[in-house]
TrEMBL record:
Residues 140-149 have a biased composition (Polar residues). It is found in: Cell envelope. Residues 123-149 are annotated as: Disordered. It comes from Pullulanibacillus pueri. The keyword Transmembrane helix applies. This is CopC domain-containing protein. Pfam families: CopC. One of its GO terms (biological process) is copper ion transport. Residues 25-117 form the CopC domain.
Length: 182
């Protein structure tokens, strides 16, 4: 009876902790612009929300319908949310963003998303107003926030601690059941 209860307790701990650790993959859940969607203004930032925390990107490539590649700033990773800033705003056209990343669970995941930009042609009065506002905004600081790796490290540390604790509990229960059966 003791062996069955020890096994049941061990399985309970594994059932509580391992699904959070072993089965969460960094797959795209939502994005801005939306996957397959279309926006009516230039895009200078792309936000990706994944199902699990992202550790790092191996490759990010943004292309248009003609295969031209667009430069991206270094991704800003905050747990499951990733923000990509373009070096210059994306104008009208269809775009595809490819990624190859390593999730917090160390699994490599790759995928892509598509979106369109349908910006109407500017009127001459809009161009003049845009130039005037750009001249007034020249003192702004356009730097992006630094990547927050501390949160990713603490998540990894938590996962490792849970695994070690689970193994220790299972081993302890095994030895207790062995001593009682003697």
């Amino acid at each position: 009876m003791l062996k069955k209860s020890s096994l049941l307790i061990a399985l309970l701990f594994i059932g509580l902790f391992l699904p959070k650790v072993g089965f969460a993959h960094s797959e795209l859940v939502s994005s801005t612009p939306k996957q397959g969607g279309e926006v009516d203004e230039p895009v200078s930032a792309i936000t990706l929300n994944f199902g699990a925390a992202v550790e790092e990107f191996v490759d990010l490539t943004l292309t248009d319908q003609e295969g031209h590649t667009y430069a991206l700033e270094k991704p800003i990773i905050k747990e499951k949310k990733v923000t990509l800033l373009t070096k210059k705003p994306l104008e009208s056209g269809q775009y595809k963003l490819y990624w190859h990343l390593v999730g917090i669970d160390t699994h490599k995941v790759h995928g892509y998303m598509t979106f369109g930009v349908n910006q109407p042609a500017p009127k001459p009065s809009d161009i003049k107003a845009s130039n005037e506002s750009a001249a007034g905004d020249s003192g702004e600081n356009g730097s992006a926030p630094a990547q927050d790796n501390q949160e990713n490290r603490s998540s990894t540390l938590y996962i490792i601690m849970v695994i070690i604790l689970t193994v220790l509990i299972i081993v302890g229960l095994f030895f207790i059941s062995q001593k009682r059966s003697e």
